[in-house]
Fold each of these.
Amino acid sequence: MFQPDVAQLLRTLSCLRAGLTAVGGRYGEELSLTVVDNGGAPDLSEPLADLRAIGVRCRILSGHGNIGYGRGHNLAIREARSKYHLILNPDIEFDGATLVESLTFMDINPSVALLTPWIGDEAGRQQFLCRRFPAVLDLFVRGILPARLRRPFARRLSRYEMRDVIGDTEVVWDPPIVSGCFMLFRTAVLQRLGGFDARYFLYFEDYDLSLRTHELARIAYVPSVRIVHHGGGAARKGWLHIRLFVTSAYKFFDRFGWKWL
C-alpha cells in the first residue's frame, strides 16, 4: 500500500481480525498477515496487537520505497508458506463470515486456484469488476472517460463488464479477468506463476495475473462471498493515475495482443 486512507485501512484490519477469528485454526497452521508498506503507512501497532492477540503472526515490510503494486505484493508472496494466500487492498470491508465462506468454497473445489467475490460500493451497488478481454476503446471509456460521457457506450461496457452473466446468486466459472482488490489464491499456484508481473507499476497487473492463472487452473466468481470496495477509476484520481493507466495498458496489450475495437 502507498499513502493509504488511514480510516479505511483501520476498517480493513478490523474486518480481517473478525474474519481470521472465525477461521481460527481450521488448517492446523499459523495464520499470518504481511502489511506491505510502499510508503506513508500510519502507526499500526494497536490493530496489529489486536491481531496478534488472536494468534495471527503479523509483520510489516517497509523501507523499500514505492516499488509499485505488484512488486510490493511479490515481497510477501515469495515468502508465503500457507495453503491459501489472500491479496487484499487496504480499502476493503467484509463481514466475519467472508473468509470462512471463501475458504470453504476453495476446499470443496480443488480445481479452483483463484476466487473472486461479489464486489459492491459504499451504496451497496455491484461494481462488476470481472472482465472480458478488453479492446482499447473499452479501456478508454471505462478507465478514463468521466461517467457522464459513458452513456453512448453503455451496451459495449455492459458486455466488457460481463453484466450478462455476473449476478447475485450463481457461481460463474472462469471469468477471463478479475479484480486485484480481493484475490484468494492457492499459494502453490500463485508462487508457480511468480506472483504479479513487476513490469506493471500500477494498473493491469491483475489483468495479467488473471490471464496467466487460466493456464494452470480455474478461476471462480463466487457471489455468496461479498465485500465492499472503496476504490475508484483512474480518471477520478488525476493525471498521474491516467498516465500510469495508459502506460500499463500499453504493456498489457503488447504482451497479450492488441484489440482496438
Amino acid sequence: MSVIEEPARQLDVLTEADVVVAGGGPGGWTAAVAAARAGARTVLVERYGFLGGMATAGLIGPILGHRAHSGSTPIVGGLVRELCERLHRTGGAPAWEDALRLWGIPFEPELMKVVLDEMVEGAGVEVLLHTLVTDTVIRKDRIVALVTESKSGRLAVKGRVFVDATGDADVAFRAGATTRKGRPADGRPMAMGTMFRVGGVPVLSEEASRAAAERILAARDRGELRVYNAGIQTRSSTLRADHITPNVTRFAGDPTNVRDLTRGEISLRRDTVRILEFYRANVPGFERAFLAALPTQVGIRESRQLEGLYTLTAEDVVEGRQFEDAIALGSWWIDIHCPMGRVRGGVHLCKGDCPADPPCDMLRERRDELPVRLFPPEGGWYGIPYRSLLPKDVRNLVVSGRCISATHAAMAGARVMGTCMAIGQAAGTAAALATCRDAAPAELPASDVRRALAAAGAVLAP
C-alpha cells in the first residue's frame, strides 16, 4: 500500500466537557443521559443525524435482554424502562408491564429518534450530530481529546473522562488500548445482516404462515434465496399490523474493513429485493407488498472487543454467574451467527452440533472450541462486571455497549440492546463519578457505582 505523509497541524477545540461520549447508539445515549443527570457537563458525539444506533440506523429490533431468560422478571430498569414508557406515550412501544410478557420490546424507530432527542436535551447534554470521531489525542496514558471530522472541519473535543460507545471500540483502538476481534481461531466476527421493512402485508393465519415458511426455506435450500430463516411474520421494529421487519439476511465480513462493509451493504440490498420479489410471487396476500424502508447502515453483530480488567466468558453466561461488581444484568444467550455467512441446510448458529454439510474448518478441526451449552439458567440471568468496561492501559476511558471486554461467545449474548443500554447507563454514571472525584474510573469502588445506579432505578438484583 502506498502512503502519503500528512503534515502536522493544530486543531481548534470545538467544545470541551467533563464527560465526552463517542457514539449515540444503545450504549451511548444512555451513557450521556446518565452522566449529565449525575451532574457532569456532557458532550455526545454521533456520526449520523439522529441517535439510536442499530435501533434506528440499522432498524434492528426488538430490544432484547429486558427480562430473565425464559421468564418475565425484569432485569433492567432505569433508562431502558424510561425509554419504553416514553415511547409508549407516543404510540411507539408497548407499556412496560406488557413488554415484560414479550420476548423483546417492539418499537417504532422513527418515534425513537424523537424521544431520544427529548431525553438527551432534557438532561442537558450537548449533542454533536453529523460528527465522526476519527482519532484521539493522547498524553501518556490519558486521552486529552477526540479528533472529529464534520462539515465544520477537523476539530477537537476535549474532556476529562471519555466513554467509547462506538460499538466497534474505535476510541479504545485509536487510543492504544488492547483490543481483539472475532473468534480466536481465525479472527472472523459474526455475520452482518440487514433488517428491512415491508408494508402492505396481511396478518397470516398460523397455517398460512407455516406454508409460507416452508416455501421460503425450500427456495433457500435450492439456492434461490439467501435467507437463514423464514421470518415472514416478524414485526420487531414496528407496531404496525400491516408491516413486517424480517431478520433473515446474512453477510460474512469484517465490519472494521471499509471494503467488506461496502460489499455487505450492496450485497444485502440486492438480497432484500430478491426476498421481497419472492414474497410477492409465493406468499398469498403479499401480492402488493412494498419495500417501506431500508436501514441507513448494515446491522453489525460483532467487531472489536476491549481487553479489559475482566473478560466476560461463555461459562459466565451459561452458569448465570453473579459478580460483586456487576453494574448491569444480561439474559440473552450465546447466539453466534455463522461467521462464514452460511445459510443453507439449517445453518443458523455457530455451535458444536451445527448441521453444516459440508462442515466448515471449525467443525472438522476445532469443534471442541465451539459452544455446546448456549443458555443461561431457566428464569435466570448473569452479571456484567464493572471491570469489563475498563481498559488495562488507558486511564480515563470507559467502554460501553457491545465492545466491552467479553469473549467471542459471551459477547454473542451481551451484545443485545437492552443489555447495552443498561451497560451504557453504568458507563455514564461511572464517568460522572470519576470527574466529580477527580479520579480514574478504575479507582472508583464498584459499590459506589452500583449505589448510584440503584438510586437511578437500574436493576442489579431482581
Amino acid sequence: MQELINKALNGNVRSIARIISIVENESQFTEEIMKTMYPHSGNAHIIGVTGSPGAGKSTLVDKLIESSKADGKNVGVIAVDPTSPFSGGAILADRIRMQRHAVDPAVYIRSMGTRGSLGGLSRSTYEAALILDACGKDVVFIETVGVGQSEVDIMKIADTVCLALVPGMGDDIQIMKAGIMEIADILVINKSDRDGSEKIVAEVQTMLDLLKGKNWVPPVLKTVAEKGTGVKELSNKILCHKEFLQTDPEGRNRKLRQLTVEIEAILQRELAKLTEHQWGQHKDEQLMEKLLNRETDPYTVAGKILEDTLLNTPTRD
C-alpha cells in the first residue's frame, strides 16, 4: 500500500485513480491512506461550481480548466453526478462534456456519485479532493450535481464557491431559497445572451445590497460558457477571492470551520460503524417483540446501544 501511495504522491495517474477508488469504497486502508496524504495537502485551491440543473456548470468548468491550463496550472476535477439506482456508480454525463481534457497529463478528471447524500456531496468527495491536493494539483474543481435547499455541502469543502444561475429557468425564485445565496463567493449569470439576463442580475444585486459592509461581497459576472465569453473575467475573480482568503481573517476562519466539520464527520462515521455493530448484537426476536408490544421503546434501546458502544470501545492514539 505504501508503494501505491508514494506513486500517487509523485503524480502517477493510475495510482491516484486506485487510491481514490480504495477510499471511495471505504476500504480497510482508507484511514492509512488519508493519514499519509494529509501532511502533503493544503496547497491546492479548491473551487466549487454549483447551481441549478441546466445552468451550464459542466461547460463552465470545461472552460475554467482551459483557462487554468493556460496559466500553467496542474488541474484536478471532481464531477459529482447522480448515483445510479442500479449500479450504485456515478452517471457520467458531466465527465463526457469535459472529455477533450481527459488525455491531458495536466488534467485529472474523476466522476463520483452522490451516494444518496442529502447535502449533494458524498463523504468521499472531500477525501478525493484532499488526495488530488496532496498529489500535486494546483487547482481542484468540484462540480456538484445541482443545487437545492439541502445541497450546500460544497461550502464545507471549497475555498471558493461559484454559484451559476441562468435566465429563464426560475432562478429568480431559486436564489431566494434559504442557504443558496449564503454559499456563494462569486455569482455567475451563465447563458447571459438569453432574454432576462439583466433582470436576474438586477435581482441578485438587490439581494447583495444586504451584504454591504462585509469584507467580501460576491461579485456578479455574466458569462456565455459555450462561447467562452466572460470566462477569463471569472478566472480573475476566482484568483482575487483566493488572494482575499490569504490576507483576510475570514480565510483562516473558513479553514477552521471546515476542519471542525471534518472532525465531526469522521466521528459520526466511526460512531455509526460501532453502533451498527452493537445493534447487530442486540437485535433479536425477543427485543423486537418487546418493542412491538410497547414493553420498551426505541429511545431506551438506542441509549443502551450507545452505552455499550462507549464502554466496549478501546481508545486509540
Amino acid sequence: MNGKTKGRVRADGTRGFFERVGEHARRLDAGEPLPAELTVSFEDPADMLRVLSPERVRLLRSAQAGPKPVSTLATKLRRDTRAVSRDVALLEQFGLLQTRYDRNPGHGRYKIVETRASRYHLIATI
C-alpha cells in the first residue's frame, strides 16, 4: 500500500462487515471510486483491546515515521528487541504492519518493519 492509504480497525463483527460490503457494492454500482483503506474487523472488542495494548500503539506510531529495522524500533522505544519482535508479529498477523527482509552485508539479513497505512482509525462497537 502507498503512504497515503488510511487504515481502519473495527470491532463491529460480522454485521458491520456486511454493512460495509453492501456500501462498497452500492458505490461500485454507481461508478464511484472506493477510497483506499485498510479495515481489520474483530468479532469481540476485547480482542481489539488485547491486540492494541499501549506498547503496541507506541510501536505503530514509531513505525509511521518510516521503515525501520526491529532493533532500531526497540532502541527508540526502550524495549527489549524480542518483545518488539513478538509485537510486530502480532500486529502483522492482524494486518496493521508488514515486514520484509533487507540484506545486511557481511551479517546476513535483517527484518524491516513498515506500516500498512499512514493513518489508523480505531473503532469498537459494543
